[in-house]
Amino acid sequence: MDIDQLIQQPEGKQLEFKRDLSSPKPLLKTLVAFANTAGGQLIIGISDNGDIVGVDDPLTEEERLANLIADSITPRLVPSIEMVTVEAKTLLIIEVYLSNTRPHWLTALGLEQGVMVRLGSSTRQAGLELIADLQRSVSNQYFDEMPMPELGVDDVDIQAAQQLFADKKQLNQQALLSLKLLTQHQGKVVPTKGAVLLFGKQRSFHFNDAWIQCGRFIGIDRTNIFDHIELYDHLPQAADSILLFLKKHAMRGADFSEIRRKDVWNIPLGILREVVINALVHADYSQRGMPIRVAFYDDRIEVESPGLLLPGMTIEDMKRGTSMIRNPIIARVFRELDLIEQWGSGVKGMFNEAKELGLPEPVIEEIAMRVRVTVWLANAIPVPMPKKGARAQSGAQSGAQSDQPLQTQSLTICRMLEDAPLAANELLLLLGLNSKTGAFKRAIKELMEKSLIEYTIPDKPNSRLQKYRLTEQGLQSLKDNS
Q1: Of these four, 51, 97, 289, 423, which has the most CB atoms within 10 Å of its CB?
Q2: What is the domain range of residue 253?
Q3: Which residue from 178, 179, 173 is spatially nearest to 198, judged by alpha carbons?
């Protein structure tokens, strides 16, 4: 980029301005952060308000800067330092590339406290988990490929995995090794971290932050929460559960007989599905204290996942369709289950779809060691508050449909099953019920007896993987009712 254009740019992940070398420590931290994150350019001789002030005695300052970098940063960092004249004033431009010997740190602070990363236009100290992630990224090691030698094959829910892969392949040991869900370690077969994250029977015990928190807030901030759930589904199934929660609140107040009309949802489901799946696939599950969070406000939906973008990756790269994989095992399983398509196409498609729908561009940000994606709604969906004196309801529509006539609720359930099979808890979520009411049980029984719906696993009616699906007879009944 031309220097005149460069100095007109705002400070960001790969660009920072400094007036002079009077305070070298912040400058050195920035250079370390550039080397560890995605490279960048630091320009000396520009004031805080953007005025070009230049550098006095640039040759001496260049030598001083080179010595400071050599003496203060470990491992040794050798950036490019260039003198450029603008408006008869000399600027020093220090260009740092993403380093192949990262992480770098300030020698005086040591490895544990001196590693810096770039977060937007600011420089932050990296924690131990992020330092480990930087080290893995250089050696082409991946967190989800690491073995868990203390566990055995029985700690992975192979049955659940096979249910998902039923139409794809038989998950024998060779297939599990090929998918890297299992790996050879010190003479025995053990699960990988990816396997436990995807299908672990006790995932939350081994990764206590690998869960999803969903909330519906009143208004446009987090002051008041209206409804929330915590999801511990196997990761490939979590996307559907998240979208069910969003659909539940998108349909509030709508006549369910119209629910299949695209405008009733009032949320861009295609975009949201991409955002949710990206969060599940690319989250940094090595981070502690940061589950995936989905927040539904009146005017937008925000999805946050733990971890910064991978070293060398920027938000602009994402928009252009560039893809880097943090969790190759998780990504491959999602790919084979057709949950994601061509690498990098999702984010680019997300922006294209927003444009086609006339929505504002989604916003991608790195905030406090997290990546947040904001999806704007075409129209605000306020939370309908109970009328004064009315009994408060728990959750979204608790009891709102439990008093429906049996025939009405049966028809509603059939419409819900028209697109895809749903488990009982998923039906309850969409109906806004906290538990199986008498009307709900009678409706399910009647639909089963009339062969309008059926089990997806008929020989195991009590299986926790059990779902209901619409039969051909049920589909015809729907058409007749329409």
Answers
A1: 423
A2: 212-376
A3: 179
